Amino acid sequence: MMYSSRRKPVLYFKEERRFLSGKCTIYKLFGLCMVLVLVSLLWLQLSCSGDMSSMTHEDLRGPQPPPPPPCPADGQASAADDPSWGPHKLALVVPFRERFEELLVFVPFMHRFLNKKKIRHKILIINQVDHYRFNRASLINVGYLESGNDTDYLAMHDVDLLPLNEALDYGFPEDGPFHVASPELHPLYHYKTYVGGILLLTKKHYRMCNGMSNRFWGWGREDDEFYRRLRKAELQLFRPHGIDTGYKTFLHIHDPAWRKRDQKRVAAQKQEQFKVDPEGGLTNLRYQVESRQELVISGAPCTVLSTKLECDQSLTPWCLLG
């Protein structure tokens, strides 16, 4: 009898029933198992060969790593190309000596703070490495001279003072020096002529003052003398307004119990500290940069200038103690 092709599965079923209809022996069961195993292996081989033939060349190479990120030129525009950051660039000058635990906090904090305000900047750490007493004013003078032609204004900035109020202005002080850490906001110093902590000036205005006096070895008084220089140069001093955070505007991270300030007044220094230095400043500064290191602290770049100051002991014998 002839069967159509569509009925072959039925014929196969009938033949399978006839095969099982006889006496069921161990040999027949074994043979049936072998047939099923062979059929399964054949089906598996055909399936695998079909899958392999359908794989592309890329599939055979296995999973590939993700493509590299685009170059900066292909990605978002950098701050240098973004007009919303403005045309000016700040040199954040930090007079420094051996206060590394404060530096580790200061650099990343200020870098984030200024970036959030879209202030182009570079942070200069002027590290005094000589054996003389600390001279904050001379180090700021060094920062001015070493700040490069790519910056057009300065921030004279203490390493232990962090701005907490984002409304504080660090922009270009075109109209005159801008005292960010004003007496109404500074956590420690509240007298009217105080200009320390954080002071912004254009390079032009700083040069008009001949910088700061180099006569102040040890801690203090250099800011008071600089206030007189601002007045002599007829520069209008500006301070923040509309800041309602009062003495909580800044975080002062200096620990006086851990780091004692050098407040000694030696010999004639007691009298000289209240006098105006009519000639000293940028014009008589003597120093040597021992090294210049580019560092990154928690993702924030800064430049450390290890600097040796020079002292004319015939003019300022108090640059050394004892």
Automatic annotation (TrEMBL):
It comes from the Eukaryota. Keywords: Glycoprotein, Glycosyltransferase, Golgi apparatus, Manganese, Membrane, Metal-binding, Signal-anchor, Transferase, Transmembrane, Transmembrane helix. Residues 63-72 have a biased composition (Pro residues). Its cofactor is Mn(2+). One of its GO terms (molecular function) is metal ion binding. It is an enzyme of class 2 (transferase). One of its GO terms (cellular component) is Golgi membrane. Pfam families: Glyco_transf_7C, Glyco_transf_7N. It is found in: Golgi apparatus membrane. Residues 87-170 form the Galactosyltransferase N-terminal domain. The chain crosses the membrane at residues 26-46. Pathway: Protein modification; protein glycosylation. Residues 55-82 are annotated as: Disordered. Coiled coil: none annotated. Residues 177-251 form the Galactosyltransferase C-terminal domain. GO terms for biological process: carbohydrate metabolic process; glycosaminoglycan biosynthetic process; proteoglycan biosynthetic process. It catalyses: 3-O-(beta-D-xylosyl)-L-seryl-[protein] + UDP-alpha-D-galactose = 3-O-(beta-D-galactosyl-(1->4)-beta-D-xylosyl)-L-seryl-[protein] + UDP + H(+). Required for the biosynthesis of the tetrasaccharide linkage region of proteoglycans, especially for small proteoglycans in skin fibroblasts. Responsible for the synthesis of complex-type N-linked oligosaccharides in many glycoproteins as well as the carbohydrate moieties of glycolipids. This is Beta-1,4-galactosyltransferase. The gene is b4galt7.
